[in-house]
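hey so i finally got around to running both of the ones u sent me last week. sorry it took forever, my laptop kept dying halfway thru and i had to restart like 3 times lol. anyway pasting them below in the order u listed, first the sequence line then the structure token line for each. didnt double check formatting much so if smth looks off just lmk and ill redo it

first one:
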Amino acid sequence: MNATESAVKRMEDWAADDSHGYDQQYRWGEYGDFDCSSAVISAWELAGVPVKSSGATYTGNMRGVFLRCGFKDVTRDVELDSGSGLLRGDVLLNYENHCALYCGNGREVEASINELGGITGGQPGDQTGREFLVRSYRNYPWDCVLRYGGEGGTTSARPGPSYEYSVKLGLLKEGMEDAQVKTVQMLLAGMGYEPGQADGIMGPLTAEAVKAFQRAAGLLDDGEVGGDTWGRLLKG
């Protein structure tokens, strides 16, 4: 069984087992429960793709970490409203609020909400049959779709560059104003972080977004964009 099938099958098994419900306080399976992001992250980690080990902790940092672990952003290849183009195992991600796994045939699997209609305070396990469930696909709305490509993946091949450029990248610190800061802001925004307006100014919001990215990437979270941070940003 490959990693994609293993991750989806585990999510489906959790959804079919009433000992697994929804909770945001004890969200890593301590008592059997998960929330939406910890379920998806844990399923892939247990399938051998080290997204949790690499720093994925919630919807806001999943995209960047998953991309570094062999996933591709295939959002432009999918019709989000209908689900056309989705493949079994695709990660459906809303950066702020929710995520799920597409499991094929117009269905998705997800941890959803506890029996109280909230996110904490319920009893362990699925008390309603809908805390952790397989349901019909819907556009939550999703901000992006991520597809694992680390095992002879299913993403369509695109031609690489026919030539390369060499550029010098500066050390960027809070308070600086430079065109390279705008590049950093756009890269961070594309990964789901919130650097503020892409104005080329290394303000407090941008510095905090850099720190969040650095923590997710396992780097020193000093808010400065040096060689290591540039390297991880440009890898996507």
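and the second one:
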Amino acid sequence: MMKLILSDVIAKIQDLPSLPIVVLELMRNLNDDASDTNRLAAKIAQDQALSAKVLRLANSSFYGMQRKVGTIQQAITILGFTSVRALVTASAVISRYQQSKDSPLDFPAFWRHSIGTALCAKTLAKKLSLNQDHAFLTGLLHDIGRLVLVTYSASHYQAVIAYRTEHDCYLFEAERAVLDLDHTMVGRAIMEHWKFPPLILDAVEHHHFLAGENIMGLIAIVNLADCIAHGLDLSADAADLVPPLSASGWRKLNISETDLMDVFRETERQFEEACSILIE
């Protein structure tokens, strides 16, 4: 089987499932907290399925609100614009990428792991006083390149999974061996196409990068959250392996054992409810 060329995959991005216009607009304004919330709330509300899912999340234990959130505008007022933006994006991406009959990737297991990583990353960011919504989005989308590769060529990705089974290796190692690229490179490419900011792009691209001094903030959080989600077996995938933890990232996060136990408990507490809402 021929290796894939990243530029060819990127050229086909426009043929992949597209995101709603309102989500693309939210991404273009990811670092702008002064966006016209009334206008965006009205646009979100026009997509009934999307807004219903966002409101279910807003009223779940994910946020633990004391009173019911009834409208998108109310959600923005109570939760904040960045939190609602994260929920809208999460809901839209998951609904756009669903398993086809010939797909070699287990989509429910994929999304369970992604949601677990997102919840874990958000909780870690809260403990470390970093941006929780950026952490949640990056955790959710850290493996999005796998869905792009599967959508681009199911047969190529079937060969990746066969290689992993034969060599009992990490999936990203099998991707590199079979395709000559991996999901982190492709993930960065599609998220760049969606206009995500460089901070999130770097974390998606480098969450398996283990050496050197560049394991900072968000990259270290996603690397650790990815390891924890695998370690907790949240995907329920029998072939799952816990990826390597960045030693330098772990040192820089400097998270205490007590806080780490809190992260485990909080992730598991929110996990099933979040999955039941986001994966339908």
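quick thing i noticed on the 2nd:
The mean pLDDT is 83.
anyway thats it, ttyl
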